[in-house]
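Incident log, structure service

09:12 report received: a user says their structure output differs between two submissions of the same chain.
09:20 pulled the input from the user's history:
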Amino acid sequence: MSGVQIRMVTLQAIAAGEITLAFRRWDRPRVRVGGTQRTSVGVLEFTSVEPVDAGGLTALDAAAAGYADLPALLAAQVGDGQLYRVGVRLAGPDPRVALRSRSRLTPKARAEIATRLERLDKASKRGPWTAQVLALIADNPGVRAPDLAAGLGLETLPFKRDVRKLKELGLTESLEVGYRLSPRGRAYRRGARPDRLTVTAPST
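09:34 re-ran on a clean worker, output below:
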């Protein structure tokens, strides 16, 4: 769900069509019908979002949500807030996967990346950062995000937000631990301006 992590085993079951419902307690709906969320298995679509009463749930609800039985589903609905039944399905592959796999860049694509990175740099309160983070990831594939962040003197969450911005451009990809440059990211750095390649990655 938006703003809520989904376990990998659940994502895989959604992708296989084995899970079609999720239940969440929220103060307000955090997703909308027709909304999507990108995940490691592809793009999820929310097909329904409706408030429900726990007393009205059924064994069919439990099975569709991946629970062994109704008592297991009910036991999982802890916390405050309205209970929502959310329909979910796999809508298709993540478009970023195809984007980041492109190892050859046209001059137009390279210029577009450079423009987007320049905008990110200008919008940052701490000044230009994109070349530094790309260099850091290039030199330290598979290193934990907290260690990379510490090398830049940053907290982990702000660093992860920056990396996600680079991922949106198809320049990085997440590993089980840490990150690495994508083929697109490596191609961009090979042809980037010299002044974008002279950043020394901080030690971690």
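09:41 both user submissions now match this output. Likely a transient worker issue. Closing.
09:42 reviewer note: The CA atoms of residues 21 and 65 lie 5 Å apart. The beta strands are 21-26, 36-39, 42-52, 82-92, 172-174, 179-181.
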